[in-house]
Amino acid sequence: MSADEGRERDRVRLMADLLRGGATLTDLSCPVCASPIFRLRSGELWCAQCQKKVVVVKEEEEVKEFEISSTLSQAESIILTKIWGINERLKIEESLEEIQKLSLVMSTLLDNLERIRRIGKMKK
Q1: Mean pLDDT (whole number) for 57-71
Q2: Which of 6, 25, 34, 43 is the most exposed place for a label (fewest CB within 10 A)?
Q3: How far apart are CA 53 and CA 36, in angstroms?
Q4: How many domains does the chain have?
């Protein structure tokens, strides 16, 4: 069996697994790889080939709204990761000067997180 045949067999297996798991085949195709798109039980659209969620937008305004929402979500995730890291450092830090620096950064991150969440609520 050639490498191409092996990849095709894997692709078909992934699609069959989605169907067995309750997904349904849609009439849409992936804008990246042109593979069929499946609707998962959760309602999300999924490309078996790319192994990624697919978002369908119909108008330019929807594209902008999605991009803004996605960017805010990514920023929130990054800030939460940074807050967690600083929190872990604060647990073991003994230098008062370093604790003050970390606390200042933590405060700034929390302020930014609050702003991001406020903007996200305004967009909804």
Answers
A1: 75
A2: 43
A3: 12
A4: 2
Number of separate helices (H) and strands (E) present in the chain:
3, 4
Opening angle at CA 112, ends 106 and 118, nearest 5: 140
Q: How far apart are CA 73 and CA 110, in angstroms?
A: 15
Residues 110 and 68 grouped into a single domain = yes
Which residue range(s) make up the domain with 35?
3-54
46 and 88 housed in the same domain = no
Strand pairing class (24-29; 45-47)? unpaired
Instruction: Give the phi and the psi of residue 5 in degrees, each rounded to 5.
Output: -65, -40
Question: Which residue's entry shows tokens 């798991």?
Answer: 21
Measured from the Cβ of residue 90, the count of other Cβ atoms closer than 10 Å reads 13
Alpha-carbon gap, residue 111 to 109, rounded angstroms? 5
d(CA 59, CA 37): 20
Q: What is the distance between the alpha carbons of residues 109 and 82, in angstroms, rounded to a whole number?
A: 8
